[in-house]
Amino acid sequence: MDATAPPARTVGYLGPVGTFTEQALYTQPDLAALEHVRFPSIVEVLRATEAGDVDLGFTAIENMIEGSVNATIDTLAFDASLLIQREVVISVNLNLLALPGVTLADIGEVRSHPVATAQCRRYLADRLPRARVVATNSTADAAREVAAADDHTVAAIAPRRAAEVYELEVLAADIEDHPENQTRFVLVGRDGVPAPTGHDKTSILVYQREDVPGSLVGILQEFAARSINLTKLESRPTRTGLGDYCFLIDCEGHIADEVVADALRNLHMKQAQVKFLGSYPSAYGEPHEVRRNREGVRAAEEWVAALRGRIRR
After folding, report:
1. Does the pLDDT value for residue 33 go beyond 70?
2. Does the pLDDT of residue 303 top 90, yes or no?
3. Which fold has domain 95-172?
4. Of the candidates 251, 262, 248, which has an alpha carbon nearest to the alpha carbon of residue 290?
5. Distant-in-sequence contacts of 2-9, Cβ < 8 A, 24+ apart
6. What's the whole-model pTM score?
């Protein structure tokens, strides 16, 4: 956050108690020490952060299997003026939870967040092919509903922490289709860009000036020409008309790096609009390429400066 801003006291996240978001938040000691404010949806977390009801917001943004969390992406892109401060990546293990004494044969309905049920398609098809799948706001919310309903035909897909919180039994553990599955979360605030660490990521949203052949290539060339690695490229509808898209781009490096700043400078000049979503420490990957790019730019600047020094006055 901005060095001049008061220290954060509150952080909002998707509740209730026992969500994967809460689990990810508790991996960060400084965030675990703050006052926690739970909200019923991702959109409400982000809106409350922008309104100043909480100092920081913490929410999922991407799953390794299911891709982007659209509620987070679209709110940051179109509806809120927030900056990403940090990313956190955790492994995801999903479990089938039910009331004590329930068996698989009893279950006729499975509740969970749509992203979670999508990650367990194979298990549901093989073991519970006749069960109705019902969407909830979060995995922990599904567990809470199962505990409150006192219905032996209903189960939830949720983390093991939710079983402890809501006194449910783990009927089947680790039922996700891909055991190596991970989810990426972001911490957002109203202002301030974290200082560069040498191992950073920058996120932007780029609108095309016009939809013509080669327009995306023109955007990508700004990064390719500077040897900047892209870690994410996703098209999103602009909400202005069918077929009108903008591009969410994550790249290695920090806005403080001249090579990244130069790419964004050119994009801003050539494209209709560029929205800066933040520069922040990267949770994975290696920093070597970014350092090499920075050193290359410095060497090129010194070379040009030497040439300019030979101009006759």
Report:
1. yes
2. no
3. D-Maltodextrin-Binding Protein; domain 2 (3.40.190)
4. 251
5. 2/191, 2/192, 3/192, 5/191, 5/192, 8/34, 8/55, 8/56, 8/189, 9/34, 9/35, 9/55
6. 0.80
Q: Are strands 56-63 and 10-14 parallel, antiparallel or unpaired?
A: parallel
H-assigned helices in 106-233: 114-118, 121-127, 139-149, 160-166, 215-224
Confidence of residue 252 (pLDDT cuts 50, 70, 90): very high
| Token digits of residue 310 | 């030979």
CATH (residue range 195-313) = 3.30.70.260
**Strand-pair category, 230-237 with 245-252:** antiparallel
| Closest by CA position to 65, among listed 230, 174, 179 | 179
Instruction: Please tell me whether residue 15 adopts helix, strand or coil conformation.
Output: coil
CATH topology for the 1-90+181-192 domain: D-Maltodextrin-Binding Protein; domain 2 (3.40.190)
Residue 60, Cβ density class (10 Å: 0-12 exposed, 13-18 middle, ≥19 buried): buried
- Is residue 264 within 8 Å of 203, Cβ to Cβ? no
